[in-house]
Amino acid sequence: MKIYLPNSAFLGNIDAFLRNFDSSSPDQLEITANKKWISIHPVVLSLVAALGLTVKPANIHCEKLEAASKHYLERMGLFRLLNIKSEIEITEHEPAGRFIPLTRITDSKELTKFITDMIPLLHLKPEQASPIKYIISELVRNVLEHAHTRHGAIVSAQYYKKSNTIRIGIADTGVGIKKTINKSHSASTHLEAIKLALTPGITGATRRFGGTEQNAGAGLFFIKSIAKVNRDFFMIYSGNAMYKLLKSKPGKIKLYADPFKDRHSAGENFSFWKGTVVGIDINLDETQEFSTLLDLIRDIYIKTVKERRKEQYRRPRFI
Amino acid sequence: MIEIKLLPVVGSFAENKDLARDLRIKKIIPALEKGQEVTLDFKGIDSATQSFIHALISDLIRNYGTEVLDKIYFKNCSETVRKIISLVVDYMQEID
After folding, report:
1. Which of A156, A181, A277, A282 could be joined to A204 by an S-S link, Cβ 3.0–4.6 Å?
2. Residue A151 belongs to a domain with what CATH number?
């Protein structure tokens, strides 16, 4: 496998990065980077780290990085997590207020501890912390419950002062969305599986609308809704498909059960990712009251349930 | 009537679905089976995920019917927790 860390890869322009990494030869990983500057979203770091964990450290080759911003990769813990030497020397600073380094979460206890520990690191007000905790809990629990990977979920986050935005990335190298959804549905493509996974009330755990006692099929819909209400990016990538919620334009926000009705981009011509990757931005200037968001979600969720019931309603056929 | 304090079990952010299931199976269902009413005390819990609340109560509504809501009380809920409980109760009644 070969990965090139570009000059810039954020959710707005991540498509080229996802198209260009080489997933052949899965027992080797070669990491190269832009020589001048590397500026990347945490989701790129989580993706590289998740990929690296599937390869023996001895089979990971990272070229000597020259970019002035190379320290960022060291500081975020990429080389520590992959158990390889970087030859980059840094002065450790107190991380509070800036970032959550790459963290591997493999069970429920680790997740609970991570959520407790991470909020002080980001120095958030309680009303800002609620959606961040919500997003990380739901996404990591998805990995722990559905991905079936011993490598767990790889999480990282960074606060960007200039844009007053927290960017979060979560990656796993598990079975992917299509396999999970198709336990109970019949998505023929990875993009169709992503669409079903983002639709409220649909889960791979059952064909029954509304889910089981443990899965309602609402987690990803909630997260996409948090991004939409806050007019932020949300990206989900699995198999050869990627769906990206684009920033909403000014004006009244309307939530849709069908993710393809949202302003989005999507495609199925990306390098194959065995697992699932999710990236999200939360602009703290735009953060809506979490309870207001819940009102919007409730309205669309109930509307969707009613529509689904109507679709399933059958009249007797008199002949 | 039994009262279950959630804070010592699930912490101030209620998100662990496994703990929600344990509470449902080990505490709530046995009490309901004995004909007791149940109070779920959310004092000290700032927020919860929809997944947690779903794992805590959806199966009760599905198995016992909406009448079970006459036997369960939700106490000391923050605005967020209250809205998430209402959401789950609403959609479970629409679905079933």
Report:
1. A181
2. 3.30.565.10
Q: Where are the domains of chain B?
A: 2-95
Q: What distance in Å separates residue B7's CA from the closest CA in chain A?
A: 14
Of the pLDDT bands very low, low, confident and very high (cuts 50, 70, 90), residue A96 is low
In this structure, is residue A22 part of a structural domain?
no
Contact A294 B87 (CB under 8 A): yes
Which tokens sit at A307?
């529509």
pLDDT digits (tens, 9 = 90+) for A98-131: 889 999 999 999 999 999 888 888 888 877 888 8
Please, is A263 exposed, middle or buried when counting C-beta atoms within 10 Å of its C-beta (0-12, 13-18, 19+)?
A: exposed
Residue B72 main-chain phi, psi, to 5 deg: -120, 135
List, for residues A165-209, the tens digit of each pLDDT value. Answer: 999 999 999 999 999 999 999 999 999 999 999 998 888 888 877
> Closest Cα to residue A50, out of A237, A187, A192?
A237
- Asked if A213 lies within 8 A of B17 by C-beta distance, the reply is no
Q: Is residue A232 part of a domain?
A: yes
Question: Is pLDDT at A213 greater than 90 in this prediction?
Answer: no
Locate B77 and state its tokens: 């809920």
Alpha carbon of residue B24 to chain centroid: 8
Given a contact cutoff of 8 angstroms between Cβ atoms, the answer to whether B61 and B69 are in contact is yes
CA distance B52 to A216: 10
Contact residues, chain A, for B64 at CB < 8 Å: none
Q: Is the pLDDT of residue A288 over 80?
A: no
Our count of domains for chain A comes to: 1
| Burial annotation A87-119 (CB, 10 A radius, 16+ → b, else e) | eeeeeeeeeeebbbbbbbbeebebbbebbeebb
Q: What share of chain B is helix, strand, coil (3-state, %, to 5)?
A: 60, 15, 25
CA-angle at A311, arms to A308 and A312, nearest 5°: 90
Range of the domain at A230: 96-312
Q: Which residue's entry shows tokens 């007053």?
A: A164
Give me the residue from B15, B21, B49 closest to A214, CB to CB: B21
